[in-house]
Amino acid sequence: MLGGVRGQGLGARFGSRGLLSACGRLAPSRCSKMAERPEDLNLPNAVITRIIKEALPDGVNISKEARSAISRAASVFVLYATSCANNFAVKGKRKTLNAGDVLSAMEEMEFQRFIAPLKESLEVYRREQKGKKEARKDKDKKADSEEQDKSREEENDDDDERMEEEEQNDDEEVDN
Q1: Hey, which residues does 18 pair with through a beta bridge?
Q2: Quick one: DSSP state of residue 40?
Q3: Taking the mean position of all CA atoms in its chain, how far away is CA 172?
Q4: How many whole angstroms separate alpha carbon 25 and alpha carbon 55?
Q5: N or C: which end of the chain has fewer CB within 10 A?
Q6: Which residue has better confidence, 59 or 168?
Q7: Is 165 exposed, middle or buried, given 0-12, 13-18 or 19+ CB atoms closer than 10 A?
Q8: CA dihedral in degrees (129, 131, 137, 140; nearest 10)?
Q9: Considering the entire predicted model, what is its pTM?
Q10: Any bridge partners for residue 147, and if so which?
């Protein structure tokens, strides 16, 4: 069951001012301030179409009406999950939602079967970010190393020029 009271569908969980929290209280929605029309809250059709095509077997078509319904359902899910995750952040006296808040929201919304795949995806994401961060560090180190090498070469060139000048001066003194 999704959220609070049994027998209460998703439609009953929304008010004109925002989403109802998992415990049934009205949670103020920031979306009501940002979006003037409910359609403004829908996910992009191109994204929805791509997800649907990847989920369906080849040769299966979907009507515009079905695609629109899936889009609205996905938007509702995202808003509801965000509201629930926000409740956990507020309980933790934080203004930033984190992955733990989202996982807790999934559990509270009774989507336990999504928790393990979400954790796996989160681990993959974190490994990718760590790899990117290390690659940037390596790139920066390489750039610093190249700069140091260049500085040393310039110093060596300056030393070589100085020595050549001294040799020329010595040669000139010997000639004189």
Answers
A1: 15, 28
A2: G
A3: 70
A4: 35
A5: C
A6: 59
A7: exposed
A8: -100
A9: 0.56
A10: none
Q: How far is CA 118 from CA 73, 101, 107, 108, 112, in A?
A: 19, 12, 11, 15, 10
For the CA atoms of 164, 170, 175, 176, what is the dihedral angle to 10 degrees? 130
User: In the structure, what pLDDT confidence band is assigned to residue 166 with cuts at 50, 70 and 90?
Assistant: confident
Q: Which residues contact 1 (CB under 8 A, 6 or more apart)?
A: 110
Using CA atoms in the order 50, 54, 58, 60, what is the torsion angle rounded to 10 degrees?
Answer: -60
Of 99, 105, 104, 100, which Cα lies nearest the Cα of 82?
A: 105
Where is 28: in which H helix or E strand?
Answer: strand 26-28
**Residue 13, token pair as written in the block:** 């969980």
Summarize pLDDT for 38-70 with one digit per residue, the tens: 666 778 888 998 999 999 999 999 999 999 899
How are strands ordered across the β-sheet holding 18-20?
A: 14-15, 18-20, 26-28
Query: How far apart are alpha carbons 83 and 23 in whole angstroms?
Result: 11
Please state, in angstroms and rounded to a whole number, the distance separating the CA atoms of residues 109 and 9.
13
Helix (H, G, I), strand (E, B) or coil at 14: strand
